[in-house]
Amino acid sequence: MTVGQRIAQKRKELGLSQEALGERLGVSRQAIYKWESDAALPEIEKLVNLSREFSVSIDWLLGEGDESRELTPDQLRMVEEIVGRYLAAQPRPEPPAQDSAAPERKAVRRGESLNWLVSVVLKIVAFVVALNLGVLLLWRQEELEERYRSLQNSISAVSSDVNSQIGSITNRVESILQSQNALTAEQSVQVVSADYRANTVTIQARALPRTYVEGMTAEFTVVSGGESLTAPGELGENHAFTAQITGPLSDDITVSVALIAGDQRQTQVLEEFFDLYFESFPEIEFDSGGLSQFRKASEAGSWTAVFYPVEISCRDIYGGAARLESLRLGLFRDQKLVEWFIREEEPDSPEGRHVFRMEPDSLELEPDCVYCVAAVAEDEFGREWVAPDWSSLVRVTSGGMDHFPDADYSGDPADWEY
Asked: Which domains are present in the chain?
């Protein structure tokens, strides 16, 4: 089980969505998606936070499961079998002949039997002692290795805590400095509404100047999608300025205010929004299948990919089944469509779950190319986007297969050809 699969398992056991887990950890849903699809590994600090959220050790998250130090019943039976075979292989003295032997001969034979029995017992004792010593050394080695891992985890935890404290102190200092240099005594920015069909967002902003002078005016600016929109501030109660601006919905939106008093104009950023556009789309999860196996006909031959049915779950931002106008699944080479999968009808499938398969189920891959499986979806508002399955990302090289190569693929259809 990979790190991503372990994170996904624990998240689902707790009944959390990727967005809910991201909120607990202070990261975006996209980051959780990349972790669970093994497209990226969490940072040390995030691993520590994940271990606390899931109540598991960092070792477990990284696939370092604890092992029992006691001999199992199978191991004990193996030891008994070895001892039994050893005794069965030892020579046995022949029984004494039925004749009128002298008492001295009988005493000699009894001495030989006694010596043989003592020899066997001593060998068994030596074997058991050696076995116990080996088990003890093995246990000791495992104990030292576990202590070493524990020490490493402790050092990592201490380092993470120290870095966290340093980061917290730095943030507090920056917050104090910003507060001292701020133009506003109070401020607020919120998303009022979004029109997904028009791909616009309406933002309302409020700014209360720290120092108000008679005749002061304000201008609010929203920068989004390469556009800059400005609206005059309306002066209200307690000399607070407010404005409402509608602009393009994008993943990088900055809201600022300019306070104007005479010839003096001072500007301050009020809020920044990230991933608003991305998070407005339904969540697509690849549960299984895709590029699952690779093989070669000969050492000098080319690689062939073997496909298995792909299961996809589509959920809206509230966790329910997403309403989609269309959903397609394709195999892409360097972000260019190679072949569409065939969608299977699954009358008994849960709502929001879809199954696709490839025909034929194998394909010869070209060298020096990056292949991946990606879903192309269109929501009820006519918006189309691409969702790559990061776990299927693979590059064919002269040396073999390079899984999870560096590739910063976006969900913008303009970056894909199909």
From this structure: 3-61 (1.10.260.40), 184-278 (2.60.40.10), 281-415 (2.60.40)
